Amino acid sequence: MSAAEVVWIFGYGSLMWKPGFAFSRSVPARLDGWHRALCIRSEHWRGTPEEPGSVLGLAPGGSCVGRAFAIAKSAENAILAALDARENVRGYLYERRLVPITLLDSGAVVSAWTYLARTEDPRFERDLPRAEILRRLCRARGAGGSNLEYLRETVEHLRALGIREVELETLLARALARTEARAGETDPG
Questions:
Q1: CA nearest 75: which of 151, 156, 154, 6?
Q2: How many domains does the chain contain in total?
Q3: Is the pTM of the predicted complex or chain greater than 0.85?
């Protein structure tokens, strides 16, 4: 495909390993001006309104290494409609925006669609204390499973792609230690 026939999509979370659409190429890419963070209150996929979870969003500042997917221009509308439905299950939380990314295999800068956290949405939690994130990771569960499993899958897939996220790895280690300690306290054996 020629460059005019290709559209790029940038994934930074589960989209990296579970895109759900056909693509012709996938390469590591960097988005500047935004970073990956557990900054979204999940009341559906990884939590409930009574016991919310915390999931990834792109928050302002820094940079984020993720995956860029090349799709056929002819499939753009259908793929974006499906992604819009997937990313905004409970209302307009993520803004789909065309942003410049750097393809790390070639250094080329291309425009790509991605989903940025809407900072004005009440589910965007910029300064949530680490203790609260850890509590949610250990307790929250939603339609997609536990919040802890979400973080574990995220960290494992990031590592498999060669992406290190020290903050997420630290949160996972602490949440697992807390969960194991709690399980040991209730184990009668």
A1: 6
A2: 1
A3: yes
